[in-house]
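Hello again, I could really use a second opinion on something today. I owe you a coffee for this, so here goes:
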Amino acid sequence: MMSRGATKVGRSVVSHMALRSFSTSSIARSLVHGSTTTTVTTPAAVAMWMKFPVSGSRTASTLALGDKPQEEEKREENVGDVKNGGPSIGGGGDGKNSKAVASYWGVEPPKLVKEDGTEWKWSCFRPWEAYKADTSIDLKKHHVPETFLDKLAYYTVKSLRWPTDVFFQRRYGCRAMMLETVAAVPGMVGGMLLHCKSLRRFEHSGGWIKTLLEEAENERMHLMTFMEVAKPRWYERALVITVQGVFFNAYFLAYLVSPKLAHRVVGYLEEEAIHSYTEFLKELDNGNIKNVQAPAIAIDYWQLPKDATLRDVVVVVRADEAHHRDVNHFASDIHYQGLQLKDAAAPIGYH
């Protein structure tokens, strides 16, 4: 009986001492074995040291207490830079309210400057993508509908103009914004379908993929510009979502069925856009709309003078629409001749 009691007491004492000697705070102290100082600072390392105390003491990290691995220090420095607004990866679109992003992968866009040496603040396009619009283009060109598909395309577009006139009336800034949310869809849809076709058939596209995607990007830049001029209301935003959802699917199906019809529709849409921007200019010239300073993004994108106004922006946008008109009527004519788009070289860079 005495021996059993002594055994229990001994076990209790040993366990108590073990808990004291193997506590985290104790293990965190330096353990000297010869000339090697070992520190165990993590729960996993604590468990490993308790299980294999001798090997653990020889193989554990030799960092002093409180030291951190270099990778962890760098990671914390990156986080600190983000919090303090320091070096980051990826800049904001206009240099304002940009969210810094720290990344393990170290992908960082090059720092670009303008011709005058000032910083390039646009991440949505690069200096070499800026250009001067050709405003000498004929704005009155019109494709006279002759075939059934041409008339279908023409009267479909004309029927869509009436509700637009009723809804926006003479609010041409908001009208332009709505117009660009629709006009930027066809180029992306056509380019996407031609891209997939090129992959399926192992053939070149004749440059038409790039041309149509350039058109879509150009129309989107129109929208980014007019967003600075006309702030959409909540119901106008809701209308954009609805119209874009319907138009995207309708145009997608139309392009699958008849590319010649799809491109002709866009050609007539661009003719209507020219008309709308011409009316916009009349309102500016009559003083009904204030001719404010041109947005900074428009000045850099079209390489306009620093003192450019909203009227100058409308002029170059209207010229872009005239070029898109020509491109899409040209694409439709190619199909009417029984050819594929790849059979005729695309006018790349034809804004």
Notes: Confidence is low (pLDDT under 50) at residues 13-41, 45-66, 78-92. Residues 172-201 form the longest helix (30 residues).
